Every structure is written in C-alpha cells, then in structure tokens.
User: What shape does this take?
Amino acid sequence: MTPNSTAQSGVRQAEASRPPVRAPRILTYVDAVARHGSIRKAADTLHIASSALNRRILDLEQDLGSPLFERMPRGVRPTAAGELYISYVRNALSEFDLVNSRLEQLRGMVRGRVRVAAVESVAGDLLPSEVVRFQASHPRVRFDIKIGVPGDLLAALIKYEVDLILTHDPTPDPNIRIVASARQALCALMVVNHPLATSPSLRLRDCHGYPISLGESTLAGRMLIEQVLAQASFRIEPALVSNSVEAMKAFSRLNLGICFQFRDAAGGPVPPGDMVAVPLTDRPLAHAQLLLATRRDRVLPIAAAAFVEQLDARLRSSQTGNP
Assistant: This one.
C-alpha cells in the first residue's frame, strides 16, 4: 500500500467514525424536561445533576424573559410560552437529524437511526423481517422500535418521538399523513385441533361458547369487536383480558380457546405453526387496515425516508398479491 492510499484510507476511517453534529444541549434539556414532566426524571435520563439541569432551565427562562415551566409539587408543566418554545425545540431537533442525515449522504455513508412505533400485530413478523431486509443493504442503520397501543403511537408521532408508525387506528388527525395502507382482517386464532380450525371464515357469533380472551379496550382489535357487539344479540364474557397478544395466544393454546389478532385476510397457519388464523367476516372486522403514517409537516432523515419507501412498497405489494 502506497503512502497516498494509506492516507486516503485514514481519511475514510476518520469520516466513518466522525460523530454526528449535535444539537445545543439546552434544546435537548428542554425537550427532556417536557417529555418527562419532571426535572429530576429528565436529569436522570440525561445523566446530570437535577440542580444543574434546573439552573440551565432557569438561565434560559431569564434570557427569554418568560418562564417555560410551571413548578408544581410533583413535577413541572409547560406554560403558554413553554408550549411555544417546546414546539420550536422539537422542530429544531428534527432539523438536526435531517442535517446529519444529509451530511452522511454527502460523505457516501449509509448510517443513521430509524425510530418506529408499531402495534403488536406486526412485531413478530412484518416489522422485524423488513428491518432485516433493510439492514442487509444498510448495515450501519440502527432501529429503535416501540410497541404500543394506537393512542400512544399517535401521540409519539405527534411529539416527534418517532419517525413513523404502523397502526390499525384510522382516527383522522391533521398532523399526520397516511403514506400507505393494507388490508389486515381481524382473525380468530386457535390451535390446529380446535373444532373451528378448518373453517374458511367465521363470524364473531361463531366464537361464542368457547373460552375467549380479548385485548384491553385501548387496543384497536377490541374497539372493532365492541362495534360488532354493540349491534349484536349476544354478548361475549371474556375469560381473559390482556394487553399482550402473546399472553392471549398462550391462554388459547392451553384451553382450546380463541383470541383475536390482525393478520393477512387470507388467514392460515400462525408461526410457529401450532395455531391457525381464521378471518372474521363481520364488516368492521373484515375491512380493518394496517396504516403506515408519518408527520405531515416533517422532512424525514435519509434512513427513515428510505425505510418508509420500503414499507410502502411492501404494503402495496401485499394488496396485489406480489411478493
């Protein structure tokens, strides 16, 4: 290796290890305090003394000539000026992410972070498989994935805590943009030797009489089931209520019961293969959708935008039957 090539290699290595451009600390401090609603909790997250963080916030408030947070016995909450400043802070932090992404693109790097919030129905298959496929081409990109209920996912997106969400809740909101959608019927899940397992489809009424586990009221599937029950002549008394799909599946395995999960409308075996999904044909359940959404006013960093494009293509292909 020549001296010149050695020098060039050193430059490339230095660029590869170059840390991202960091936002001013005071912006991350204000954001943390607003998210946690507590200076002490924010300080713990930031690994600094709460007294030091409080002093920085007080200094900023003095510079601005207005208090940003109202101090209360059990935390803080933003004032009107604080709400305005926090909005600026989050926009600024988002722009720093974008700048870092653009700089890395100019350096020919494929590095970044993608923050995803999703419903549990995609946590065991679609989402991890798409992350693996994306990282095969972009190994330097890391993912932060949060699984939660629709209301929490929407709140996280609006607060700039994530770049994109995968949700079943079509609640309209002017702050979000639906990028793509795919039909995902609510299915009845049961073990392969269940009396109803060979049925090509079912109505919710058909499940009546078997041990049933339902999701909590905050889950999209439960909301849809309640819509059907509101106009039905029968009631369902669940043997188990949980916010965990895995807990409900385990319960159904043990007692020939039935639980419900959003799956491909065609139904079929559920990995690892000891359960099957039978589509429900009740109208609200058969026409449920998986939605991919981002903030309407935000330009995503390169890595996040590329992953959104990949998910968009995957969801669209699932509607046409293409792989």
